[in-house]
UniProtKB/TrEMBL annotation:
Domain Response regulatory span(s) in chain numbering: 5-118
PROSITE patterns found in the cross-reference section: OMPR_PHOB, RESPONSE_REGULATORY
One Pfam family in the UniProt entry: Trans_reg_C
InterPro entries in alphabetical order: CheY-like_superfamily, OmpR/PhoB-type_DNA-bd, Sig_transdc_resp-reg_C-effctor, Sig_transdc_resp-reg_receiver, WalR-like, WH-like_DNA-bd_sf
Taxonomic placement: Bacteria, Bacillati, Bacillota, Clostridia, Eubacteriales
Modification sites for 4-aspartylphosphate: 54
Location of the OmpR/PhoB-type domain: 128-228
Source organism: Desulfotruncus arcticus DSM 17038
Function: May play the central regulatory role in sporulation. It may be an element of the effector pathway responsible for the activation of sporulation genes in response to nutritional stress. Spo0A may act in concert with spo0H (a sigma factor) to control the expression of some genes that are critical to the sporulation process.
Residues in coiled coil: none
Residue ranges flagged as DNA-binding region: 128-228
GO CC list: cytosol; protein-DNA complex
GO biological process, one term: regulation of DNA-templated transcription
Protein name (Swiss-Prot/TrEMBL): Stage 0 sporulation protein A homolog
Length: 228
């Protein structure tokens, strides 16, 4: 039977023991590391479906591991940390992290977030492999986005947001609908401001004029839409 494998990096033995036990009880295979060096070795020797990374580690930080994980492929990352400030949250998101949960946390909340993140990476959710609207092309089989044949680099959340628009061309999507599609839960730092930032960044990257957008259009009082 196929089970999902999780890379879990946490140096606090009490937290690690309890969470690892709970993840195994949920049916996951868990490989636990306590520092950056062990995590690097483990990543090179295994393939994972998800990484849960503590931010503060004895020989580095979770950002170091996240960079390595993202070079291996499009694998989801959740940061688990006691640090809860805007700078660290934004830095993690910009690096491609999919979620950020602070200690102390409720176990059921973390398990719910893990399932939400894994659902977002489920390729069966977007069975269509090629989307085109305007000058934009999306190849979901390769997880690549192009504008006039030039590849555009997007973070995992920007890519997810663009896919939601691509699957709903011509439809007005409310801010609530977009937030649900990105996160599937009410995260601590997931709010209208977060969505506004990602809409702005996505417009800039796909070449849309953020002042006079023509691709991702604002429908006043209702939300956003792509296409007529």
């Amino acid at each position: 039977m196929f089970t999902l494998k999780i890379l879990f990096v946490e140096d606090d033995k009490v937290i690690a023991s309890g969470l690892e036990y709970s993840l195994v009880q949920e049916g996951y295979t868990v490989l636990h590391c306590t520092n950056v060096a062990d995590a690097k070795k483990t990543i090179n020797e295994n393939q994972f479906n998800l990484a849960i990374l503590d931010l503060s580690l004895p020989d580095g930080n979770g950002y170091d591991i996240c960079k390595i994980v993202k070079t291996k492929g499009d694998m989801p990352v959740i940061f688990l940390t006691a640090i809860d400030d805007e700078v660290n949250v934004v830095m993690g998101l910009d690096m491609g992290a999919d979620d950020y949960i602070t200690k102390p946390f409720r176990l059921r909340e973390l398990l719910s977030r893990i399932k939400s993140v894994l659902r977002r990476y489920d390729k069966s959710e977007f069975p269509k492999t090629l989307f085109e609207f305007g000058d934009i092309k999306i190849n979901t089989a390769q997880a690549k986005v192009y504008k006039r044949e030039r590849e555009i680099s997007l973070t995992s959340l920007e890519y997810r947001l663009l896919l939601i628009f691509a699957n709903n061309v011509g439809q007005v999507l409310s801010r609530g609908r977009l937030l649900d599609g990105i996160w599937d839960f009410a995260g601590e730092f997931v709010n209208d401001n977060t969505l506004t930032v990602y809409i702005k960044r996505l417009r800039e990257k796909i070449g849309d004029d953020s002042q006079n957008p023509t691709i991702i259009k604002t429908v006043r009082g209702m939300g956003y839409k792509v296409g007529d």
